[in-house]
Fold Thioredoxin domain-containing protein.
Amino acid sequence: MAVTAGMDSFEQKLAQLPDASYILFKADWCPDCVRSTDAVKSAVAAAGAQLLLVDVAAQPPAWKTPAHPLRTDARFQLGGIPTLVYWKGGKAAAKLGADLEKAPTTAAAAEVAAAFVKANQ
């Protein structure tokens, strides 16, 4: 099951997230995110796990500032989007960023996401 959060509700939704879940940090204006979101949803659903979809910013300038809360948050230290995090034991146990971002097609994103989920269950 997928749950959506914006920055205003992120901490609340994170606190409610079951252990051994996934978090996808994304933005609707980001072409790499658009290409990979459905692939990530499918991979996580196939594993029977929970997915939290987090919209990091409504507009690119808000995300691109080095002071963005998710860039500076020690739990995540995001460098780019999309980023898929395996959340276990109240921390980011694994993170998939650059490979998901660089996936040239939806099919490639699906392969990368499925491999990450399989390796982190």
Summary: The beta strands are 2-5, 21-26, 51-55, 83-88, 91-96. The chain has a mean pLDDT of 95.
